[in-house]
Structure formats: structure tokens, C-alpha cells
Amino acid sequence: MERQDKYEPIVVNLSKTEDIRPPRNYFVAFIVSLLLLGIVGGFAAFYIRNHDWNEPAQNLNAPEQTPITRTPVAQEPFTQEPIAQATPPKRPPALPTATATPTPLPKPTNTPRPSPSPTTSAVVEKTPEASPTLPQIINGYLTLNSAPPDAEVRLNGKLIGRTPLEGYELAPGLYDVVFRLDGQQREETLRIASGATTTYTHVFEGFGALTIRTTSSSCDISVNGKPVGKSPLTVEGLSAGEYAIVISKEGFHTVEKTVTLAQGERQELFITIRRLGSRPAPSVNPETSPRPVHPSERQE
């Protein structure tokens, strides 16, 4: 066959071409797929909304168990603080499912949950915390004397009386005490202890004193008719002049003595007292008393 050197042009009449359209079967299949997808999505949304996600999954193949009843154990009730309940997990959002034929799912059966056995809880009573108690403060006492007596006493600048002053109740601490008598003034700082008695005696200057001792102790002594104590003792704060001293004791003779004191003089007395019924010791004169005779001087 001979080869043609020239080709004849092919003329296509475009005006006579026909439109190419897809068949209608594909459109119907698309519509059906959309309907099926809507039905599956609606069923999935209904299942997710009505399903209890807190309930554990049940084994359908496991045999049904009978509920076990437990005998409640009597316990002491207790007060339990409220416990914050855990918030349920959020439901996952509905996910788009692929286009597929839905398969029927088994309907969940509402099986009754076994009721928990009633138990009585013990009440734990909280004992109230004891508030710290402050230590109780015990006051002390102050006894003041002066020689001579009847001196004015001021405590921290306040007049509280005259000497003798006994059993004046004060709180523990330091106090300034001032004694005043006949123009003389003396200030002392005294400490008061808790539950104790503090005794202080102030002797003013320019006054005399008598120290009295007796052969028998614990004799009652009075000066100018005023009892001052038992022997032995020292009477302070005596002015210049005469003083009548009386010493007495049960079962003994009473002794009276007069003493004269000068200004600021201090004397000591030692007084002998005798028992009742005893005689005074005879005085012995060595000149008139017979001399003992020696055996060589005796006459045969």
C-alpha cells in the first residue's frame, strides 16, 4: 500500500456534538446515602443521650447472681464530715460516623442494683480543746512594826495605817514603805512573796532599849503595865525616863524592877526568879562563919 504524502484534514462539526451527562442512578444513590447517614446519626445521638455512662459494663454472658443480704453490724454512730462528690465525666461529643449500613444494637436492660447493706456508723465526738488556764496568783501579807510604836505607815505614797500593822494583804511584788514618827522619816523597799508573810520592824534613832533575860525562860514581861512578850527579849524605842518592869511565870514568884534610861541608852538586865515555896539562899559572911578544923588540930 502506498504511503500518502499528504493527509486530508478532518473536519469536526462541533455544533452537532451532544452533551455528556452523568446517569441519574448516581444521584439517587447519593440521596439514599444521606438518608441512611441521618438515620444512623440520630440513633447514635439518642443512644448517647439516654445511656448511663456511670454504670459499669455488664457481661451478658455471665450468669445472673442473686443479691447477698448481709446482717447489719451494730456499731456506735459517728459524725462524718461531708465528702465532696466526684463530678461525673463529661459526655464525649458525637462523632461523625462513616457511611455504612447500621447494625441493630442490643437494648440495654435495666437490671436492679443490689442495695447496700445498712450499717450504723460510729459517732466520733470531738472533745473540746481545753483553753490554757492562767496560773492563779496568790497574794502575800505584810506585817510592820516600829520602835517606838504608833508610827505612820505609807505604802507607795498611800496611808495604810499606823504600827503595829499585821496581815496587810498585797499582791506579790516590790513596795515602797515609809515610816514617820516625831519628825523622823524612814523609807524601805520590801518584797512581798506569793503566799508568804513579810515582817519588818523599823527602829527610829534617838531612842533607848532594854534587853531582858531571866533564869527561867518564857517568862511574861510587861513594861509600864503593857505586855511586851516573853523572855528573853529586847524592847526597842524607849524614850528617856523610868520604866516599871514586871516579870511573872506560873509556879514562880513575881519579880518587879524599876529601870531608868537616858536618851538613847541601851541596857541589859538579867533577873533571877524563884519557884514558889523555895527560900532565899542565906548570905554567907566569911569572917563569922566557922573555919573547918583540921584533923591534927582536934583534941584527943
Which terms would index this structure?
Immunoglobulin-like; PEGA; transmembrane helix; mainly beta; four-stranded antiparallel sheet; 1 helix; 300 residues
Q: How much of the polypeptide forms β-strand, as a percent range? A: 25-35%
Give the spatial strand order of the biggest sheet. 3-2-5-6
Q: Can you tell me the CATH superfamily of the domain at 140-203?
A: Carboxypeptidase-like, regulatory domain
- Helical proportion, percent range: under 10%
Distance between the termini: 226 Å
Helices, by number, come to 1
Number of strand elements: 14
Q: What is the H-and-E element order?
A: HEEEEEEEEEEEEEE
**Compute the gyration radius: what is it?**
64 Å
The CATH architecture category of the domain at 140-203 equals Sandwich
Which overall shape is indicated by the principal axes computed on the Cα atoms? rod-shaped
Tell me about the biggest sheet? 4 strands, antiparallel
Low-confidence stretches: none
CATH C-level category of the domain at 140-203: Mainly Beta
What is the CATH fold-level name of the domain at 140-203? Immunoglobulin-like
Task: Report what the structure shows.
The protein has 300 residues and is mainly beta. Among the domains are: 140-203, Carboxypeptidase-like, regulatory domain (Immunoglobulin-like), CATH 2.60.40; 208-271, Immunoglobulins (Immunoglobulin-like, Sandwich), CATH 2.60.40.10. It is built from 1 helix and 14 strands. The protein has one helix spanning 25-50, and strands at residues 140-147, 152-155, 158-162, 165-170, 173-181, 184-192, 197-203, 208-214, 220-223, 226-230, 233-238, 241-248, 255-261, 266-271. It has a 4-stranded antiparallel β-sheet with strand order 3-2-5-6, with no helix packed on it. A 4-stranded antiparallel β-sheet has the order 10-9-12-13, with no helix packed on it. The longest helix has 26 residues, at 25-50. The chain is rod-shaped and about 190 Å long. The mean pLDDT is 75.
